[in-house]
Request: fold
Amino acid sequence: MQLHWHRRDLRLSDNRGLAATSEPTVGLFVFDQSVLDHGAPPRVAFMLDALDSLRDAYRDRGGELLCASGDPAMVVPELATSLDADAVSWCRDYSGLARERDAAVQQALIEADIDRNPVHDSVHHKPGAITTNDGDPYKVFTYFSKKWHKRDKRDPFEPPESDELVPREKVTGFLALDGSKPYERKNGENDNSHEGNNTEYKLHDSLPTLDDLGFETPDATVPPAGTEQARALLEDFCESDIYRYADRRDYPADDCTSRLSAHLKWGTIGIREVYRATVEARNAAETESESVFEFQDQLAWREFYTQVLWDRPDVVVKNYKQYANPINWREDEEALQAWKDGKTGYPIVDAGMRQLREEAYIHNRVRMIVASFLTKDLLLDWRHGYEWFCERLVDHDTANDNGGWQWAASTGTDAQPYFRIFNPMSQGERYDPDATYIKRYIPELEGVPAETIHSWHELDDGTRKMHAPDYPAPIVEHSERREDAITMFEMARGD
Ligand SMILES: Cc1cc2nc3c(=O)[nH]c(=O)nc-3n(C[C@H](O)[C@H](O)[C@H](O)COP(=O)(O)OP(=O)(O)OC[C@H]3O[C@@H](n4cnc5c(N)ncnc54)[C@H](O)[C@@H]3O)c2cc1C
Reply:
């Protein structure tokens, strides 16, 4: 028997950890407080929904997904022992914290004399597999991407059949669960407890609620989770939007991107399944293959940033790129709050920040615009923006979020050069010419003509009040701040 410890692979199909064994399997998910401490309501809500679907998927096949709370370094070996499992499998997670946790679990399993089967699953090519000819990790995406596209990609893995799962009754029998009382272990009741760990755990009969886990109901509308939902998005996308992706992906009002980010973050769909659907879309309409390639390139970005985080776990708190001197970011609580509230007086920035509040999501082009605005117009440290995104995004993924922020702040790999600064007004005019996206999130600007919205920074206060009395004037002057940003970076460079 094998215990499969699910983490960011909340699915049965295209799951290498489940496919890698011929042993009958029991699923396990552990609510780990040290991970939940970094959680946020929209993400935890999405995760609970995904777990609900995963548990149903196990039960539909006669199997079981156990859900426990506690320190995985205690829970995993304890449950494996109670179930008499020969081995524990899991899909590797490449962030620094996850690697520390996995090393602790691995050690505890060694001590408990239980076999370990960690597998590589979440990206096509494991971090460290695509390197320069000298064997170094790439610092520039373009070269990484060229190699990434050329490499063969695996087909999706089949989900386990019913007879490859340990029957549910057998699992509950092993654990003496009668369906009415949770199974609890306290320190001292077993031989495998580890000094310094949280040595108490609990097995849940039913999934905990957000409230049980200490989270408020999210303010934002959280999309439904689960493999079926992810597949529906993928299918829809590959039927039509994938063919206009290259031309229209930068236009937020078009909504033509896949919206798979939260699913890829939680692994409700496997990367091989997503990729195969794109190959089928390309084969179905060969003339549009460039557009399909453009989408695949975004999947390559995801793998590039996974590799960056794996190679440099410190980027979570430190600049990737070294400047000669520290960057002299400003501190301005009021400006930061206006940015968070979507009240900067720059319509495309405010629309993005309000989309974040309403949907726990922002369109990619607008993420770049709001990140540039925070760092190059407000001159605030990218870490403030990263923290706010962590708190609010349903798809927050350490590697991608950090990569995106450091790119915009000119501190990352392949960074936007410090002197190339987004102009929030011309970005709005170019990518949302009719102001459809802006008006969707800023009701104060509803009846205002698009030309007026795009020249908001040039209007006098009287004209602004006449058009939209409740919408603010710009809180900073972009042309001035642009010069300040250039000076700030020149000082950091020591020019
Ligand atoms: C400041 C900033 C913060 C970001 N934070 C995150 C984050 O926390 N989580 C996240 O998944 N993406 C993040 N991104 C990347 C990108 O904005 C989102 O992946 C994308 O908007 C999600 O929408 P989608 O699924 O419709 O994307 P699509 O355009 O349909 O792309 C498909 C998939 O490719 C991946 N992808 C797309 N663009 C990128 C990119 N630039 N970098 C890495 N992977 C990418 C995602 O997994 C995405 O779901 C961030 C970008 C910026 C500029």
About this structure: The domain at 1-121 is CATH 3.40.50.620 (Rossmann fold). The chain has three domains: 1-121, 228-311, 333-489. Residues 448 and 467 are 6 Å apart (CA to CA).
